[in-house]
């Protein structure tokens, strides 16, 4: 059995495909409110988003392919299936045959999304005997369309499909995935040189490379972080009183690397106020996610990677294009964008009888609320 370092070095050497594009950065957190609501949120960090990316509703009993697209002429009848559950998330239907969801939830309260796993993701060329081929960009769509819980998602990914190195639009994206449900359990799904790994009962936080087990172990380096300020300090007979707040978090990393974001979000999840209701929980969690958000202009892209024909408006910086959040119990899907911090929402309950796709704009335009004399008190 390889140790962690050897495993990751082998993964570097084993690349057999250009795994750029469709592989945004991102951070995610599972959250629980005081009244028992389960929420999952993620930041979508990249220097672009595919043209036609909108809040997308997928109805029940809708045909789709789990591998191949009609746009590229690679779809085969044996890969055709039908949605069992309706779902909603941010994604695109530009490929025609199958919607690509970057994140979302279904009517049973299963939530989740894809995140970048650059340099460590590895997918086999051939499927395991007795399983079907599943293309990486379709994992979120397929799991939400077929599974009611993380238990069912685990069984599907372990026994019914193989996530394979099947290119889409000229690339195989480097992805790993997170799913959470009404039980409060969050799983992380990673396919690397050692095969498929599904981590159960995680801390509910995930960012990007390296893998989840590395991030969890890395938390030991920050075991002294707490929510309580350090008290008055005496050194060589001199007493130094507190002069500022926040000293309990000395050592917490503040950069935008994946390890630093994981550490910050893990401790913020542990200590921050959860909110008494769903509305408070969503509001507070959106604020938490800003602690891991990429400011536009701070993270310059050294390698733009493979740019597909569906990607426009590319900037030279990775930044948090949007933050989405969703509630497993209410089935409400929320989001903000970098430009528009007003929380917007679609209630999936209102869409469940729809027979076809429905899409809603992200409304990324800057939105100020101007008060006048009539608003005075």
TrEMBL record:
Keywords: Hydrolase. Residues 26-355 form the Choloylglycine hydrolase/NAAA C-terminal domain. GO terms for molecular function: hydrolase activity. InterPro entries: CBAH/NAAA_C, Ntn_hydrolases_N, Peptidase_C59. Belongs to the peptidase C59 family. This is Linear amide C-N hydrolase.
């Amino acid at each position: 059995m390889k140790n962690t370092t050897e495993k990751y070095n082998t993964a570097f050497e084993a690349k057999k495909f250009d795994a750029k594009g469709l592989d945004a950065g991102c951070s995610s957190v599972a959250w629980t409110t005081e009244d028992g609501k389960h929420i999952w949120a993620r930041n979508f960090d990249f220097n672009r988003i595919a043209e036609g990316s909108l809040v997308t509703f997928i109805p029940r009993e809708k045909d789709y392919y789990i591998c191949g697209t009609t746009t590229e002429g690679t779809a085969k009848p044996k890969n055709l299936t039908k949605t069992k559950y309706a779902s909603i998330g941010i994604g695109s239907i530009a490929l025609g045959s199958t919607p690509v969801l970057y994140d979302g939830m279904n009517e049973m309260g299963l939530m989740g999304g894809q995140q970048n796993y650059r340099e460590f993701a590895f997918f086999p060329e051939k499927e395991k005997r007795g399983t079907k081929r599943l293309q990486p960009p379709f994992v979120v769509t397929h799991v939400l369309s077929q599974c009611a819980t993380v238990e069912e998602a685990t069984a599907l990914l372990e026994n019914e499909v193989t996530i394979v190195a099947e290119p889409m639009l000229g690339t195989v994206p480097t992805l790993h995935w997170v799913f959470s449900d009404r039980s409060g359990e969050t799983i992380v799904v990673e396919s690397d040189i050692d095969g498929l790994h599904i981590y159960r009962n995680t801390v509910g936080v995930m960012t990007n490379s390296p893998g989840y087990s590395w991030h969890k172990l890395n938390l030991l380096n920050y075991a002294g972080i707490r929510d309580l300020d350090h008290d008055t300090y005496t050194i060589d007979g001199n007493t130094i009183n507190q002069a500022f707040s926040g000293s309990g978090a000395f050592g917490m990393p503040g950069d935008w690397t994946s390890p630093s974001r994981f550490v910050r979000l893990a401790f913020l999840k542990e200590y921050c106020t959860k909110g008494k209701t769903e509305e408070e929980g969503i509001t507070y969690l959106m604020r938490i996610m800003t602690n891991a958000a990429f400011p536009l202009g701070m993270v310059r892209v050294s390698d733009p990677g493979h740019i597909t024909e569906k990607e426009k408006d590319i900037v030279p910086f990775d930044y948090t294009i949007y933050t989405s959040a969703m509630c497993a119990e209410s089935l409400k899907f929320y989001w903000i964008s970098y430009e528009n911090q007003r929380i917007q929402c679609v209630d999936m309950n209102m869409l469940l009888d729809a027979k076809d796709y429905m899409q809603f704009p992200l409304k990324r335009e800057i939105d100020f609320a101007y008060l006048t004399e009539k608003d005075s008190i």
